């Protein structure tokens, strides 16, 4: 009789490998019509495996190609999104703009420029030569000695120096006072709000855009003047009409283009970062190796951010070289450039830190030797802390059991919440990133310790020991047919 071996069992190839019945023509259930046929030969099975591997390779290549295209788009859009967001904040957000320019009022270099220019402008309005000439004429007309009259003509230079000193001290006290800083912020806020209202078509401010004209609404001024005239006794002033409450400041054909540009900037500055983040997430999802693509994307965006920072350094050098010292001193020019671009530089640094932390996190979740060592060290530390709590009589009960069973999910939720907090944070800084990082590290560590502090499982019940074996008593002898008869035994 032939023995059934794995090689000749139904559903196996000649090499003993199990075949897929749904993919094997001629096998029961392999034909939609219910017909049966012969099993795959070794050559047919090898060809099937080869075609399957080729299809898998083509699929992976297509995914790699798609992920590469999405990665390139992310790297191109990331610096544009960074700059567009900064420009949008400076142009469309009055509070952000005032926060940007406010430090200039306290910068010593800028204060020095303001003091010098205000002093020169005030002194220029004082005609020292005319004052000296009038003094000389007055002395001559009043019969002053000739020596005194001649000496008065040489007072021009000392008088100009004295006027300059007095004006400079006065202007310095004014510019370095808190009142100047408040006036600086107020003037910039009003000017920026006026420009924003003009570009957005908002009719809430005094300056409004109407068609291709920029108009000044003087309605509030008219109402105040009319009320003051009435209060002063001019009752007929109450009949002043409300018509012509606007004054056309200027007319320009470029106003419509400027408003269109403002609308485009609002869309780009708001949605380009969202689009960039979505494309990056799609690249990670399409790639066959998700963790590796996270590392590549984070490092790539970090490199583009470094390029932006280097470009800012180069732009600063070009700007300082292009500004003549007679127009603006180098220290004041540097202070103005650094102040205006400090939020862009801070955003770039924050993005760089986030990219590095993301790449490091993706690496630590990988199979590398260092990553495994770090995870093992963290696990031993959490287990040791949990055991210490348990020995001290502190256990976490059912909560600890639940945390131990769902530790990966809870850790992932904490990391996701930290990433979402950074995305939703309005203008995050490096300090904000550090705060989120501390929370993301501390909370999973606490979860791991609580999971390790769960009560120790009860030892399994041991079966009760068997009672000692006692041999059964021998049954009484019964004479058999071949047993010789003994006296005292009855006959069978």
TrEMBL record:
Keywords: Membrane, Transmembrane, Transmembrane helix. The chain crosses the membrane at residues 64-87, 264-286, 292-315, 346-365, 409-425, 432-453. The keyword Plastid does not apply. Residues 1-15, 459-485 have a biased composition (Basic and acidic residues). Residues 1-39, 454-492 are annotated as: Disordered. Residues 27-37 have a biased composition (Gly residues). This is Integral membrane protein.
């Amino acid at each position: 009789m032939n023995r059934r071996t794995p090689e000749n069992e139904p559903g196996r190839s000649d090499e003993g490998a199990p075949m897929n019945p749904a993919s094997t023509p001629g096998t029961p259930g392999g034909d939609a019509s219910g017909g049966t046929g012969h099993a795959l030969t070794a050559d047919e099975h090898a060809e099937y495996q080869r075609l399957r591997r080729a299809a898998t390779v083509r699929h992976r290549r297509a995914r790699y190609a798609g992920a590469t295209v999405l990665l390139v788009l992310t790297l191109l859009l990331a610096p544009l999104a960074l700059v567009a967001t900064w420009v949008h904040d400076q142009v469309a957000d009055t509070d952000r703009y005032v926060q940007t320019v406010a430090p200039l009022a306290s910068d010593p270099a800028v204060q020095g420029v303001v003091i010098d220019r205000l002093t020169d402008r005030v002194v220029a309005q004082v005609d020292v030569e005319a004052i000296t000439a009038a003094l000389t004429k007055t002395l001559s007309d009043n019969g002053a000695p000739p020596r005194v009259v001649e000496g008065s003509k040489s007072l021009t230079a000392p008088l100009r120096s004295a006027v300059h000193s007095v004006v400079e001290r006065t202007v310095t006290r004014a510019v370095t006072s808190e009142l100047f800083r408040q006036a600086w912020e107020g003037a910039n806020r009003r000017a920026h709000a006026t420009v924003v209202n003009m570009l957005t078509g908002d009719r809430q401010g005094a300056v409004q855009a109407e068609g291709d004209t920029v108009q000044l609404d003087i309605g509030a001024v008219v109402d105040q003047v009319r009320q003051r005239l009435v209060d002063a006794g001019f009752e007929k002033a109450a009949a002043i009409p409300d018509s012509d409450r606007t004054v056309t400041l200027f007319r320009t054909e470029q106003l419509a283009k400027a408003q269109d540009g403002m609308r485009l900037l609002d869309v780009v500055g708001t949605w380009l970062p969202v689009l960039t983040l979505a494309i990056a997430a799609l690249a990670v999802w399409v790639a066959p190796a998700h963790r590796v693509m996270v590392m590549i994307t984070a490092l790539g965006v970090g490199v583009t951010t470094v390029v932006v920072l280097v470009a800012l350094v180069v732009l600063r050098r070009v700007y300082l070289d292009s500004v003549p010292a007679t127009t603006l001193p180098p220290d004041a020019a540097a202070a103005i450039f650094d102040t205006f671009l400090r939020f862009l530089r801070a955003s770039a640094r924050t993005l760089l830190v986030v990219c590095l932390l993301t790449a490091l996190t993706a690496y630590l979740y990988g199979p590398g030797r260092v990553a495994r060592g770090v995870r093992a060290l963290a696990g031993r530390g959490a287990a040791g802390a949990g055991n210490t709590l348990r020995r001290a009589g502190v256990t976490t009960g059912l909560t600890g059991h639940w945390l131990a069973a769902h530790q990966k999910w809870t850790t992932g939720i904490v990391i996701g919440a930290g990433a979402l907090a950074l995305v939703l944070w309005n203008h995050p800084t490096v300090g904000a990133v550090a705060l989120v990082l501390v929370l993301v590290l501390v909370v999973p560590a606490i979860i791991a310790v609580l999971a390790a502090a769960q009560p120790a499982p009860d030892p399994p019940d041991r079966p009760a020991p068997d009672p000692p074996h006692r041999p059964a008593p021998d049954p009484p002898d019964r004479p058999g047919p071949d047993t010789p008869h003994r006296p005292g035994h009855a006959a069978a």
